[in-house]
Amino acid sequence: MNDVAVLGAGMHPWGKWGRSFVEYGTAAARAALADAGIGWQDVRSVVGADTVRGGYPGYVAGATFARALGWQGARVTSVYAACASGAQAIDTARAQILAGMAEVVLVVGADSAPKGFFAPAGGDRPDDPDWLRFRLLGATNPAYFGLYARRRMALHGDTTDDFAQVKVKNAAAGALNPYARYRTAVSARQVASSPVVADPLRLLDICATSDGGAALVLSSMAYARRHGAGVPVRIRAVSTVTPTYPRTVLDLPDIATDSAVAVDPPALGFGESIARAAYEEAGLGPDDLSLAEVYDLSTALELQWYEDLGLCGPGEGAKLLREGATALGGRIPVNASGGLASFGEAVPAQAVAQVCELTWQLRGTAGERQVAGARAGMTANQGLFGHGSAVVAVR
Amino acid sequence: MTRVRRPVVAGWFTEGDGDREFRLLGTRCGACTAVFFPREDSFCRNPGCTGGELAEVPLSKRGRVWSYTAGRYRPPAPYASDPDTEWEPYTLVAVELEAERMVVLGQAVPGVTVEDLSVGAEVEVVPGILSEDADTAWTTWHWRPVEVDR
Ligand SMILES: [Zn+2]
Q1: Side-chain half-sphere of A219: how many Cα atoms within 13 Å?
Q2: Looking at residue A201, what is its pLDDT?
């Protein structure tokens, strides 16, 4: 097994604090180091997941965090893959550990989010699909979420109440999480009376953008043993796959899909292929999971992830939700952390935060939102332009 | 004052006023027949193709609604919209083209709302105006329900 140990996990609470991402990332890093019982001076490599804000991509994040913690000569890496940046950072750290390049690696992601819709980088850039979809169509991220949601309603019979129930479920879990930004219960009626943003989705169906920071201290299994870490949570798989041509589901920021004229569509869609790669590397299947943390940018997208992770059959996401299987106390809790619904997205921190939640759940230290007897968990998300992201952790 | 009509992006659709002739323009690979929209002029993206000549090809005029939504809030720049005017929601339609086996997104013609649409309904591409400034009318493509046309 190519396992690496999770020695420490730490977060700065999500919110709209209006401070620098450096502060959130540094706080999360110090928390993760304290959790690991490791001094910063012992870290031999730091990997930063970049924000696109704050001038240079997060001042080119890795070095900015290393400087804030105090220069001590560690190897540095900075990665950017939009929403998948955190998974790429974890994957980079893991590769360095497994290659023997570093025994202890600090992974940090943090963001200071602007108000309102995410917008593309500035300037006149007609060759950039992300710029074009705003310029030509005004197609915001929620517009794509609205398209998926409407498509599910037509194809699978999902209802807007099903979508609202995802928010109700995640808000109930988030209310138990001290790191979540929104910590109050939400009713289906509140969702239904919130304003429509991108038909059929309403404001409370769509995740906010937040400030936040998350960090992990990863090490080799040998180091963890020497360090006396007992039975640490282990990262068993990281999936960072790209899609397979032709990609026939419209995905942001694209204005059109690939054409399936020359080549038939692949058997697995992108989301399914992200999960498949993680399962194959981990030697696990959906039935082995105790919990999953998925990217609920919208309520309807969470249902899609159920299907992509194989927690139910195609089109059965809403049924699984209605059965209560994915709520705390259910057969396979999804987003026990409260998910993006309770956090809001802090882009480069989010995929790291997902693994923090798995770590606490697998240790059995998740408090009131603890999934009983958690043994294995998966995180899943995808980054703009085709960056797959999934992590399997076990204990 | 007459504004000059200019395509908001060059080479993506035919120019001229006729609704009936108006088409989106993609490219087709001469080696593997793959179609690309937005047009791909420098390389074929089929991983099994070593690359052929990419020739311009008009896309089907009609297709069926894959999905649709409405933007109830003003999008950020670079979408052209005067923040001092009241925001007029617009409808976005993703349309499945049978011959090309692909889905193409576009705005619906002004006035078409989500109430006028359903998944699977037939729509056709027509010329439209995205925005106007002092001396230019920026042209684009719009999807229009075929029924409304009768
Ligand atoms: Zn080709």
Answers
A1: 24
A2: 98
